[in-house]
Amino acid sequence: xxxxxxxxxxxxxxxxxxxxxxxxxxxxxxxxxxxxxxxxxxxxxxxxxxxxxxxxxxxxxxxxxxxxxxxxxxxxxxxxxxxxxxxxxxxxxxxxxxxxxxxxxxxxxxxxxxxxxxxxxxxxxxxxxxxxxxxxxxxxxxxxxxxxxxxxxxxxxxxxxxxxxxxxxxxxxxxxxxxxxxxxxxxxxxxxxxxxxxxxxxxxxxxxxxxxxxxxxxxxxxxxxxxxxxxxxxxxxxxxxxxxxxxxxxxxxxxxxxxxxxxxxxxxxxxxxxxxxxxxxxxxxxxxxxxxxxxxxxxxxxxxxxxxxxxxxxxxxxxxxxxxxxxxxxxxxxxxxxxxxxxxxxxxxxxxxxxxxxxxxxxxxxxxxxxxxxxxxxxxxxxxxxxxxxxxxxxxxxxxxxxxxxxxxxxxxxxxxxxxxxxxxxxxxxxxxxxxxxxxxxxxxxxxxxxxxxxxxxxxxxxxxxxxxxxxxxxxxxxxxxxxxxxxxxxxxxxxxxxxxxxxxxxxxxxxxxxxxxxxxxxxxxxxxxxxxxxxxxxxxxxxxxxxxxxxxxxxxxxxxxxxxxx
RNA sequence: GGCAGGGUAGCUCAGUGGUAGAGCAGCGGACUCAUAAGCCGUUGGUCGCGGGUUCAAAUCCCGCCCCUGCUACCA
Length: 567
Description:
This protein has 19 helices and 17 strands. The chain is α/β, with parallel strands linked by helices. The strands form five sheets. The protein has a four-stranded parallel beta sheet with strand order 3-2-1-14, sandwiched between helices. Helix 16 (477-483) packs antiparallel against helix 17. The protein is elongated, with a radius of gyration of 27 Å. It binds one RNA strand through helix 6, strand 10, helix 10, helix 13 and helix 15.
């Protein structure tokens, strides 16, 4: 019988997702690395009845946006707006279900950031210090290290970047480069002294260590990397820059400076929560509701992003939170490794990537969600190939799951006048066993979901589909429908109920097609709202005419898409 | 250089002390309801290399080789 496998009291969970930088469209690496895992996790918890707030936004500030604006002869706002809209479209297309996807370019965010800045200043966590930085006199701008090129002082490579030499791999300081030149104008940068606010990160080393040490449930690479950085000691870092595109410093006399992105962007998690609470999106209408996720003791916050973002979420953001006080530190930071594209790292700048908006013009979202979840880079880098995409689509979605739904519905339609057959009062052992197996899967899949082992969660759900195919084959309802109608009726009744359970189990990963299965089973409303349990299919229910859930893809897709990649 | 992750069947990967696993590909078979899908059986591995600990190691320790990533003032 259907049952909720375990019903603890509702939890409060903040699903915090990396802020994409608004200088280009999103690609498959972004989806696989943070947006899709976050969405699967959030959908699962919503089905469990937990109180989920899933937020993120466009990171709108920073030098690259300014530079791009100048290249195109437009404003930073226009560049940001373009990609912000692209992000919103991508999330809608792929079913990434943010409660709020805002940006750092809001008054609210500036206000929250400035509040934190002032409180940290009062608390002695910030101080002013002079720095010598490289300045491009032609474009009148201080240069981030990456915008300086020159000869590597170590290996003599002539096109070393200011932060790192691509030839010998050395970590560099831009002022040490020989014959430095600006990448913005080719001018020779000048050394100029400028004054900036520094964050006293060094003061938090011990507190952070005490906080991270017991986090044994974190992914090993996240915890080890963080502890390694703490062992080496944290240097204080400048949190302001000589820029005009960014959040202003809330003090007199600092009009030419802005709060820098690495300090300001992570604050977005908090400002977005506040924006959501005060907006019409909050059904309760209480602007103070953000406190539920940020101040309640048992609230959990889970931060999804790629591994390159680990220090910002395990060192810098926690330091800011500790300095500010009275706000929850991250509960977990399930950072993913990288998704490589046919062996090469996905990169916005280098090409060879599958752009999220483009891919959706030719394929449905669920096959991508499925593939990226099944091959998620949870423990090590994983490779996206079109051949694997086509194979998983055809073998696993079409043949195993879609075909299961289709064959059961078709037999039912042709032999039982499209009505769910009546099963006998006592089910056979194999029928009972299969139903129990589905119901039990809600516990095992749920456990994997909560540990953010999404590959495993999906694998466990798909095993149930395999068991259902085996059951059908053993019971051969297409044979018994002629000789022993009751036997076939029981088989189909059970199979339809198993499919109902699978629609729910797979919904976090496959929301679009699970909803279609829901409709094919004549369930009213939305699968998302049905809870984390199998919804029974009642005998006698009239079923609509089935249509295939997934499209089988021809092998020629592989060549076509690979040709597109190299363009 | 430092740090991290990885090196297991042709391919993609799971498996952290107790007789080597899954999916796909390959081979064979029974079936035919279904988008020729599904089901059953089967071939295939000195678990990167060399030492060590142990009654027992893919799994723990040491050394080495190779791959990837990170190394935080691009975000």
